[in-house]
Structures are given as structure tokens and as C-alpha cells.
Write a structure and sequence with these properties.
homodimer, 354 residues, alpha/beta, Aspartate Aminotransferase, domain 1, Aspartate Aminotransferase, domain 2, 2 domains, five-stranded mixed β-sheet, 11 helices, 15% strand, globular, Histidinol-phosphate aminotransferase (chains A, B), histidine biosynthesis (chains A, B), Aminotrans_II_pyridoxalP_BS (chains A, B), pyridoxal phosphate (chains A, B), pyridoxal phosphate binding (chains A, B)
């Protein structure tokens, strides 16, 4: 507390990212990073721009990266917005499309940042309760609102909603913007991108931090009707003219272009996820059906917090949320097959010693 | 305009960065970049982190960079905040220390972004009028306020206020935060950093885009009392956990560490500035006394807009502001000696053909 902080700073509860302890080398299954390295083409592209031109500002319009994304997703360039990670894209979206007057809606169990943004920008919001199986009840979103944000697949559950059901929601909700946060869509889900030309109120948000293995470079993007994109640019250009540096722009462009590698690693992760799911179920875990690069699991005999701590003691980091309804669950990022084998072995030992 | 934008987006006038035309190669003296390349050590440090670890998030606490800055400026680590360019640091400062209830104060002619931030965050503000010689009248800031921001040296004038006068302002203004924006202080000014332990309400903001030649990598920082820094971190962690990517963190750390190169290039730019100032004065220009890496000039016989356009036709970009009181001035970034020689020659020809 300080007398120099304004009321918002005093009251807000900032987001807490997954821990990054430096005391020893962990198998890191706690922040949904990709276990595979970035595309070699992206590495090469970044190496190529480490030169004297770094004295110059980056392109504020990010035109080359935007053009690459437009080609990849079959949209027009003015239907693409890029930002410093999808977190920044989401924050700017809250600043652009939502206002105090009307309540925005999002699931009670979902990405914690939605609530933080709502508090930060002093928005009214309603947490729509997931059902007992952690499904998002779309019908509960079909009421007067000032905006909707739904992660698909949801985090931390990994549960996925098919595009038909989402289209239906967007169609009956024409008066406000519906944001579909697709941070994890590339691991088996189907993107809503193909519908942005049908709905002027649909904004799709994606990131290069997961399926493109570039969490270290901070690039995310939004796809939607050109008016929505123009609004986002108005806010961005009122905060920071250059949010993505020269190296990140180059790496992101090359990563988007490398479809072959993208297909290879996302397939691998999906396979590993299905194998790990089966193995954990055999050990008595309840594992939610996931279309993401993580799984959400609980065991009736082993307490979630205890499992989290035991795994940490054994050199494996997973994510534990000390929150109502999910405080007996763990969110486990899908690593390489080897990493998941170690995880399974450690869990077996922990369960045997209960 | 879109029915999906909120009122703020509809009303705001975003900042417009200096033009970056791609039609031909220009001598670029319009965005206050450094004409010299980044430190070789920074280049090397960035090359060294282009590797598979880019799949992992950056350190959200930026601890190594912060530690380097703390050593360089002789402050504690909890007195340092880093962000995605000083623009982001400034935006977060507005979000942290200012509120609607009390008017904030800044000069009428100064960095345009202050006004944009005020509009974006719906703050009340008063533009304090510079005197006829473009001096900032500090006495006019000595009244009830909700915060003060002063660029020193000022942009686009380049004029500098000595630390004694600023200390006096901060001392009589204990109830609100005084931000000194020192983007250009390394070109002959004296930083207020040495006083942050004396004043709990002083925040000093700097950038690596100018004196460190890293505009392309987007890193800025703030120095101040630990309570101010904690407030900034609360806002940052409510917007985006990781605003600086791995490559930028590494490059910035190495650049801060390379004092020798920093001293060499800032000295060169100061010398070039003094030479160019003398030459332009000989050509009949009024050149304001500058402590920045740019000069603010006007010529009684040649109209500012005409000069800007003529120089652009001749392959040289300078900055022209179509604004009350300064619409007959040009802001010229200090380039290399060679670049400035070309500028002077072109100007001579333009003046001769009047």
C-alpha cells in the first residue's frame, strides 16, 4: 500500500503466473509451454535480424507478420491484429469492446486473467458457473450482456466446444462482441477463424506461445471483422506504438510460415496427451477429455495439493490452483514422451506410498 | 466507427509515430533513433539466446536485467521497474499513480503521448503553457494536482531543466507523484536518479531506445521508491505477465553493462549536435539550446512545412508537427557527422533556391 497508488492499484489482485523456481532443474509441466523447440526456420529468421538495424524502431504496423498470418488463415490483412502475447491482445480487447454500463460474461472456471482485466478496467462482470462436469453452459450466456469471452478449449479444464454450438451463441448475441480465446485450439480443436467473415461481432484470439513454441518471444494475434481490428489498433496506438520488437516480428513470421513443423509437433503432443490420459486413468485418475496441450486430473485417493507438492519434491512442476471447486485437481502440461514417462513413474511411486 | 467500440475508443485520438516510408532509402532523422549500432556486447548477448529455450516463457520478474540496472544506477533492485519501451512504462505509470479525481499537469508542448494516455484513462489534465522561449515554467506546476509529468530534456524542444529546480518542485509537491521522463537525458543532461532515495514521490523514467541504440528491441525502465515500483508491478501483472521477451532481456542487460561504448557514442552525438547547431545558426536558423539527441529549429525565411517537404524530396526525413505554436519548427534527430553534412548541404541548396 502507498498513498501514491490510485484506488484500482490498491484493490486489484494481480495475476500470478506459474512458478519458475531456480533452485534446481525441473521437468516443467506447469505453464503449458511446448516441449519441442521453435521451428528451425524461426530460429534462423531471428538470427538474421540480430544486426545493427536493431538501433531502429520496429515496423509499428507489423505489416509483414500480419500479411503472413492473413495468408495462413485465409483472411484479409485488415482482419488481423498482433500484440505482445495474447495476454496483451486480450487486455486491449477488454479496453476496446467492453464498458462499465453492461455486464460481460465469462465462465467461473477459466483463464484467471479475464477477472483481473475486468477488475483493472472496472467492468461489471458475471461469472457463469460451469456444470458439475466442468462443461460451459452456453445457454446461460444467451441473455443481455456487454460482451462475452469464452476460451476454447477452456483452461484449465481442456474441455472443447464444437464450432456449431459457438456459432449459435454468436448468432443470438449480435449486440455485443464474442471473444473466443483459442490459445489452445491447435491441439485438436477446430478454429472459429473460418467464420469471421460471417459475424461482425466475432473476435478470435490466438498465440504463438503454445503450438508455435515461442513463449519466450511474446506474440499473439486476433482475427475478426476489420472494424474490430481497427478498434484494437486505436487502443494499441494509444498505449505503445511498438509492442513487438524486431526479433519477435521476424521469428513469429517464420514460425507461422512453417506449417510442416507445426503439424509435426502438434500431432506429437496430441499423441502423447492421449497416451498419458490412458495411463493416468489406469492409475485411478479422473482425467477430463482435453483438446489442449494439458490435462486436468484428480485422484480420489490422493489430495491435489499433496500430489503437487510430492511431484515438486520429485523434480516435476505441475500447476495447482488453490480455488473453490478445483482445489483437488492438477493441471499437467503435456511434455515429451520421456517427460511424461518420468511423471507417470513418479506418480506410481507416490500412490504406492500413500 | 463501430457499434462494438466503447466510448473511449470512439473518442480517442491515437498517437501517430514518425513516418517510416518504404518507397526509398532515406537519411532518417525523424524518430530520434541513435545513428550508431547497438553495443557489440548486446548483439552477442542476443545471438546467444536465440536457441531452443525460446519455447519457454521469459523470466516474468526480469531479475537479471533489473539487477544490472540497479548496479549501474546505484539503487536497490526493488527500486527498478522494466517494461516494453518507456512508452509502456509511462502508460503503466498513468494507470498506477493518477486518478480521475485530481488534475494532472504537464507542459502543453511536450511528448504527445501524455495527452493520449490522459484521454485513454479518462484523466483530468491541465496543459501548462511553455513561455515564449519554450521554457517549462516550473512555478506554474506548484499548485494542487494529482500528479505531474515533465520530460527532461523536453521533447520536441530539447530544452533542459537543472536538477536543483526539479528538486525544488518535487519538494513542494509531496502529495502526488512527479514523473521525470528522461528519455533523452544521456545526451548532456544530469539524471534525477540520484535523488530517488530522498523523495518517495519521484519516479524517473528512461529508455534503451535512444542512448543505448536499441529502439528495435523495446525496453524502458523506471527508478523510484520501492512503493512506487511495487504499484507499477501490480498494474503490469494485471495486464501481461511477460512484457519483455528473452532476446530483449538479454540485449538490454548487456547494453546497460557496456559503459565504455555508451560513453563513446553519447559523446559523439553531443559533438555532432554542437557542430550542427553552429552550422545551422550560420545559415540563419534559430536553434533551441538542446541537451537531447535532436534539435528544434526554425528559419525566418523558410516555412517549416516547406522545409520538411523539400528535405523529404531530397531523401532526408525530419519531423514536422502541424500544431499550434510549433508549426514553423522542425525537429531534427542528430545523425552521424556524414548524415548531418548531407543535411546541411541540402538545406543550403534549398535556401539558395528560395
Amino acid at each position: 500500500m502507498s498513498k501514491y497508488w490510485n484506488e484500482t492499484v490498491n484493490n486489484i489482485e494481480p495475476y500470478i503466473p506459474g512458478e519458475q523456481p531456480k533452485d534446481k532443474k525441473y521437468i516443467k509441466l506447469n505453464t503449458n509451454e511446448n516441449p519441442y523447440p521453435p521451428s528451425k526456420k524461426a530460429i534462423e529468421a531471428m538470427e538474421n535480424v540480430i544486426n545493427d538495424d536493431l538501433k531502429l524502431y520496429p515496423d509499428p504496423t507489423c505489416s509483414e507478420l500480419i500479411s503472413e498470418i492473413a495468408v495462413k488463415y485465409g483472411v484479409d490483412e485488415d482482419e488481423v491484429f498482433v500484440g505482445n502475447g495474447s495476454d496483451e491482445v486480450l487486455a486491449f480487447s477488454f479496453m476496446t469492446f467492453f464498458s462499465r454500463e453492461k455486464r460481460i460474461l465469462f465462465p467461473d472456471i477459466s483463464y484467471t486473467f479475464y477477472k483481473v482485466y475486468s477488475e483493472l478496467f472496472k467492468l461489471n462482470y458475471e461469472l457463469v458457473k460451469l456444470d458439475d462436469d466442468f462443461n460451459i453452459p452456453l445457454d446461460e450466456f444467451k441473455k443481455s450482456n456487454g460482451g462475452i469471452i469464452i476460451p476454447n478449449p477452456n483452461a484449465p479444464t481442456g474441455k472443447y466446444i464444437d464450432t456449431e454450438n459457438l456459432r449459435n451463441l454468436i448468432e443470438v448475441n449480435k449486440e455485443s462482441v464474442v471473444i473466443i480465446d483459442e490459445a489452445y485450439v491447435d491441439f485438436g480443436g477446430e478454429s472459429m477463424v473460418k467464420f469471421i467473415k460471417d459475424y461482425q461481432n466475432l473476435l478470435v484470439v490466438q498465440t504463438l506461445s503454445k503450438s508455435r513454441s515461442l513463449a519466450g518471444m511474446r506474440v499473439g494475434f486476433a482475427l475478426g471483422h476489420r472494424d474490430l481490428i481497427e478498434g484494437l489498433n486505436r487502443i494499441k496506438n494509444s498505449m505503445n506504438s511498438y509492442t513487438i520488437d524486431r526479433v519477435a516480428l521476424a521469428g513469429a513470421k517464420a514460425a507461422i510460415n512453417d506449417n510442416e513443423y507445426f503439424n509435426e509437433i502438434t500431432k506429437k503432443i496430441i499423441n502423447t496427451r492421449e497416451n498419458s490420459t490412458n495411463q493416468l486413468r489406469e492409475l485411478g485418475f479422473k482425467v477430463l477429455e482435453s483438446k489442449a496441450n494439458f490435462i486436468f486430473v484428480t485422484h480420489e485417493k490422493a489430495n491435489g495439493k499433496f500430489l503437487y507438492e510430492s511431484l515438486k519434491d520429485n523434480g516435476i512442476l505441475v500447476r495447482y490452483f488453490n480455488k473453490d471447486r478445483i482445489d483437488n485437481y492438477l493441471r499437467i502440461t503435456i511434455g515429451t514422451d520421456n517427460e511424461m514417462d518420468v511423471l507417470i513413474e513418479k506418480i506410481k511411486t507416490i500412490l504406492e506410498n500413500l
